[in-house]
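Quick one: co-fold with glycine.
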Amino acid sequence: MSKINVLLLGSGGRECALAWKMNQSELLDNLYIAPGNAGTAALGTNLPQLSPMDFEAVGKAAVELGIDLLVVGNEDPLVAGITDYVKGNEALKHIKVVGPSQAGAQLEGSKDFAKEFMNRHGIPTAQHISVTASNIEEGYAFLDKQQAPYVLKADGLAAGKGVLIIDDLDEAKAELKAMLDGMFGASSATVVIEQFLSGIECSVFVLTDDRGSYALLPVAKDYKRVGEGDTGPNTGGMGSISPVSFADAVFMDKVRQRIIEPTINGLKQDGISYCGFVFFGLINVGGEPYVIEYNVRMGDPETQSVMARVDQDLIALMLQATGEQGFGESFTVKADERTAATVIMTSGGYPGKYEKGKEITGLDAVEGSVVFHAGTSLNVDGQLVTSGGRVLAVTSLACDKDAALALSYGNVARIAFDGSYCRRDIGFDL
Ligand code: AMP
Ligand code: GLY
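Sure, here it is.
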């Protein structure tokens, strides 16, 4: 096979991990990351001025750079239709794209769409009702019938902040009203109210070929709350572990039969083109898997732990997924049997207000872990500084979870920046 040029869109820890894995491929000629971060700059060529949301500029760069494969890391360009843009453009349509059509991206872009899709295809998920200002009374009546806690979700993208879980009924009704009145802007003009499901969550990922087959990637667990013991506000994710002990063969058989396959067949039945990652946010309720949410991209920080374990050429997988023949049949991606643990180091104050521009030191002392960058950049003096809430992901592989965590935490202690914070209890519930 001849070597290819790849353009990866995004700038987070997820993209750094994807870039790291792609960079190991024999099939890679040049890797470009737009806009990228200080970590991806060491793995390819950053295009810091190129916004993934500026499709025209992305297309122009793709032509100039001779891009063969476009990998869309984050959801915004997908929900805005970047894949359709490329496929519908004479000068671009030869480019292979990992990322679903705009219609497929609705699985993440609209929670109402996702719930209707699951109900239509018999995929287990929490009971729900979708409410707008015109049927708010039905929303109140649905809440009256539920038991606490109450789950309210903004329909549209809200940067992971659009879900409220509330213990008090009156407060839930007041928040429903506030959401419909614009608490999350246009994204909460429709609110999905859900039955609360009690259980432990995990993240399942597949790469689909748009031909009915898929590659199942290693399962991971993410730690979303900022505080130890899963307390405090939600973040993008404070750490991850892969594999997940409770996602055993019996559980995964149910996931394949009841969730993954009906999803892929459902997309086909609905005439929705989908070649890309599907992220199934699942909850295990007494051994039975339910879908909490779909995302149309990999998870962050799950990708860091997942890519550390993937034992196949990622670009070869992507070329197969996007190729004429697809995968042919579904399979499980070869994975390192060891456990990967990722600990996220954040700026002080995150997910609330935080400062940027803090110098980061100690990376050269790291041993036995990979450090993926998320919110980092180089300042005018060429120093590595913080530039986001989630700054670094420290990922390690070892014979078990405790050993992998010990490695990651040992290296976290070697890295310093003003105000740095991490959760000390990643993996506590496994
Ligand atoms: P989502 O953005 O839909 O993934 O929701 C964010 C988080 O809220 C999830 O990761 C769960 O921890 C929690 N959550 C969402 N929906 C439910 C539900 N129906 N029952 C229990 N917890 C939920
Ligand atoms: N870690 C959760 C997400 O990427 O949405």
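If it helps, The mean pLDDT is 96.
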